[in-house]
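Continued from yesterday's entry.
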Amino acid sequence: MERSDRRLNIALGIGLAGFALVPWYRIESGFYGLGWLGNFPFGTVEAPGIVQIASHGRWTLAIIALLFALGLAARAFKVSPLRANLLVGAGAAGIVFLVLQGLAVGFTGWTWAISENLFGPLADGQPSMGAGAGLVALSFVLMFSFGLAERGVLRGDAFVVASIALLIFLVSIFVFYPVGSMLIGSVQSFDGSFDPSGFIRNIQDPSIWSLDCVVGGNRCGIAWRTLFLAILAASGSTLLGLCFALVATRTRFPFKKGLRLLTILPIITPPFVIGLALILLFGRAGVVTQQLSSLFGLEPGRWLYGLTGIWIAQVLSFTPISFLVLIGVVEGVSPSMEEASQTLRADRWRTFWRISLPLMKPGLANAFLIGFIESMADFGNPLVLGGSHGVLSTEIFFAVVGSQNDPSRAAVLAIILLFFTLSAFLAQRVWLAGKSFATVTGKGDSGAHIALPRSLSIGVHAIVIPWILFTLVIYGMILFGGFVRTWGLDNTLTLEHYQRAFSFSFSNGAIAWTGVAWNSFWTTIKIALISAPLTAAVGLLTAYLIVRQRFVGRNVFEFALMMSFAIPGTVIGISYIMAFNLPPLEMTGTALILIACFVFRNMPVGVRGGVAAMSQLDKSLDEASLTLRATSFRTIRKVILPLLRPAIVAALVYSFVRAITSISAVIFLVSAEYNMATSYIVGLVENGEYGVAVAYSSMLIVVMIVIITCFQLLVGERKLRRENRVATAFVPSAVSQEKAAS
């Protein structure tokens, strides 16, 4: 009872602070700047909720105050069904009404005609919600959660119930609300009224759905061109990834460590840099183009600028990711099954085709899905190499920031893009549903994998070795391109691009960052350092709930959280712009919208990594802690987290790197004050400053290599220590468990 009262006091204290101590509405100059203190607590915007009701006529906030007072009244009761029902009712009603009030009242008054008809016109509207509204919303969620816990939901575990409620609340705000706003925006006019004419006009646009390329014409519609490119890119990257995985696991290739090194490169490379390197090689002024022109007298062509160039760049970018997905699957195929096949006189080719390859289907499906979604969402390479052959991601961008200025067209294109990716996501789940591909069981499974059929071995080597050399040349161009004065015209070696981007000087005993890239560089690092731990925390908490808890709707909960993986970054970007540019939540141009985008865009990777790591931990460890009356929160902090340090580090590093190299969503969300590195590099490319762009990209690659190297060293050391303790794992004891937890 004392513990229930203490946590309820915390929830109510958060709500009281939101109502009485901080501004209810958004502070334009920035909440953390504290400039609002001069007009607090009676300013029109700076006033807290209680003053807004009393002095500024915001009578709609009075209902929220009454619902919060109902929660306060519940505190007077002892823990009982009555108190639990009061908390659940007050919390749920408070959340619903707070959402409705925020959506119904805009800058100038009612945003819904039905509200004005029922209550009459408002004398004044309201700004966007601020810190006060956010704290009260959090208080309502906690009241609702603690009420459910007191009713015995999930064995009365308040931490678990509150975690699930908060995750659902946050995902609803930062995933489903933006996507819903985009869908609604596609059938609205500029004044917000219902107007489906723009949607109908754009959805019927021949430039989207034209099939001229099928019937003999020269151009496909944007939708079919993007779909065709995504299928080709996913197929190419999956096939090459499988070849790399087979070479790394089933052959005597002498440079297997080098293959694994190549898997790091696409993660640490800005997504458009490969396209830029291809231009340096095969563009009209590229090295290869100029050499062929001088040797054979060929006229430099523009074959690279179009779907061919985009496909090459995307396969280069996504093949190592497919390799990462597939290598574990290839290694996981049971050697005993292959040996059994050969015992039944099947040759190596038949064994591979009928036994090994079918068991790799989940990995192949995942690799294809990742390649498909990444190709659909890719923005940088089509922007650099697309020329007149635009794809959905670039057309969405130009519909927003170009001369068209057609938000309805951007929304329609984003809906088409989302339809393609979600269809692939659902098709993969349906295809794999109900099928078993298990090859690792509790029984012993010794033996070695059979060698590849000779013809297949020759084939995969013939594919992999030239591709490795080609990849090395590409990355050599990326590094070398920053050291020449003007690529293709003046190849004199110089450091002026690095000096222009990253120069600094000493003035009055302090460092002055005079390079043009420093501002975006430091902004990127700061936002990445903030978003990475949040992403890891949300992902690992979600993994804990999925693996360790059993509750109604768990599968739906997992699918809803993982669905954000299937939403392309371009769609996330345009939906955030349409959702968070107006009340109730106005965040465009701030660091908060970038952080929210990174957290909920990259969260599914942390979830899957956490699920994989936590599934290897015996459930008896945390059950023992709970038996000794430790709370779930203390169990996670003292038992689970120390055993998940490698997974935590992996989630942190991945989130940090993705925050630095992301472009498809970021390009819509940056501002003059908060400009990210990738967006700044795109601007350099558009201005023809290739040298500075390559220099900046090379610097980012070096920074990422340092971080990834530290990560690999840390994880490698922990894996080695775990192997040294393997003998004690067979005889569990209090001592061995205590050592593992420490």
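--- second protein ---
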Amino acid sequence: MPIPLKEPVLIFGLAVLIFLLFPILMGKLKVPAIIGPIIAGIIIGPNGLEILARDSTIELLGTVGLLFIMFIAGLELDLDGFKRYRNRSILFGLLTFSIPLILGVILGLWLNLSILSAILFGTIFSSHTPLGYPAISRLGIAKNKAVTTVIGGTLLTDSLAMLFLAVITGAAEGHLNFGFWMYLIIATTLFAVVVLLITPSLTKWFFKRSNNEGTIEFNFVLAILFVAGAISLFVGLEPIIGAFLAGLALNRYIYDHGPLMNRIRFTANALFIPFFLLSVGMLMDLRVLVTSSDAILLTLLIPIVAIGSKLFASWTTGKVYGYSTAERKVMFGLSTSHAAATLAITLVGYRLGLFDQQIINAVIIIILVTCIMGPYFCEKYGRKLAIAREESVMDETLPERILIPMVNPDTMESLLDLGFVVKNAKKTEEPLYPLSVVQKDLKQANNEVAQAERMLEHSVMYASGADVAVKLLTRVDYNIGRGIERAATEERITTIIVGWDGKSEGGRKIFGRVIDNFLEHTYQRLLITTIKQPLNTIERVILLLPNNIVHKPGFADSISIMKSIASQLSATTKGLVIRDDLDMYEKTSQQVHPNVKIEFESIDSWNSFYKNHLNNVKSTDLVIVLSARRGTVAWHPELEALPKKIASMNLENFIVFYPTEMKETDIRGSRGTEIPKELLFKKDYDD
């Protein structure tokens, strides 16, 4: 068998075997699994056992993996958090660019490099690749303020590094003239406008018409990613900048824990990112480290400057903004890895004659050391942040279980999407519980039960795309509402999500006989929904808060869930309060997580809400009414008429949210007598 391997099947098979075995080996050694492919690349690469050549195939797959890293970084960036911490990201970006740049230029001049070579040499140190981001993402701390600071600063840092590269390239080739500057400025500006302004509009239009076709949506995302990367080449930037900008452009349309995001992560982490790490390891040549005393000195100095400058920038930013020790070390871990931009700058400098082979070898050492150190710091100290975050929500007394009654196959996916979001809001590991109630005699329901199970099988396939477990339920009962109530009791359900078509029967019915039945006989948290647009196209969440709802038990829990929904959808949030003191609502909102700003506004009357606010609702708005069951402190007669009025106005997206009630009502003193749940006249509620 010829060595290095030439047969594509053998090359790919060996690579996949490495991706399987080396992470397991790294786990046994208690080393971050992400390091495995790098070490494998050193062993089997052209400078090791020469089993594999770093040919065009390896370079292609590695480049795709690198683009995926930057793309996912942009997708998972908390834009609201970035807005809150914008100044921090700018400060960190400037520090982590300028400090390594200055130290690198000084070191380059000490090594007798020319001015241009020394500046480009400093640019090598200034850029970084957040190679540990997959570990951060896996640990679930991607929206931590320190992580947001680094990822926001990465865009500034790498953009400046690529601009420096473009300028020095022009100077080295004698093209540094007025025309060059005009082209660079105009092309870069147009590129940013196209990616950040046009792409979101195109994406919103596409998702509205994609009918939740997973393959089509995934291919659309890939097209955006690689077209943005390709265009960046013509602008004079590295493709990683285009990939990161594409991730930012699609950020709010691919929400976390959804099927599409899971497909992107799975494709990247299972195949392409390991190929990138393998290709990095294949660049290493251990034999060049001891060729001379100058080589040894250079090999020692360059990593010290590269690592020390990034450590100083992270430490300084963390101190300025009061970050914890673990957060500062995570910042260092994310910003210390040199791979993408570093390789690009080094190879361009070598091609232009600005760098010699000795610098190339020393830079490879930087890549190897920092690609090990960065993910290690992220894995180790990111885990501490994740554990600290989990400890803050471990005071739950009941397992959070979400029941989703399924009646209409056309609304199944939208209900599951909302279930994914609520599940993430409650941070529960429990599966979702899709339910089908068969209206049939128990002894004659075999065929109908089998048909119901077949309908529910689609929910299993859809939920598996989001990596969410489900437990299918079927109940046989002539009364669908009672069947739902029984399932909720038997499975210890805490949240029920049900769809509503906007129709009701009978004069006093709120939603219709079925929903009204289990609404009256259940105490669990209940979300009655009409959602006609994909959740990832929602731009604004409008909360309607009736008078006295702030005093209701479960209000803080409800606000927390609604804020989390808005956060996951990257939507702005507005709270409309009917005749109440706004200070109480703002105080409660500030006390619950997540840290999402709600703009509260007081409304004089229900009629004012209908005329001045509902008429201005857009198709990209989600209206959430925080309602109340009869007989509770916040109940108002208007709450029973409200759903019909909203439905009659053809709003595309709204949820009527009923908070959790006490499990049992204390009926002492009224045995044998049925007491109405409300005794007041309508005018009494308006006093």
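The longest strand covers residues 432-438. The two ends are 90 Å apart (CA to CA). Will compare against the first tomorrow.
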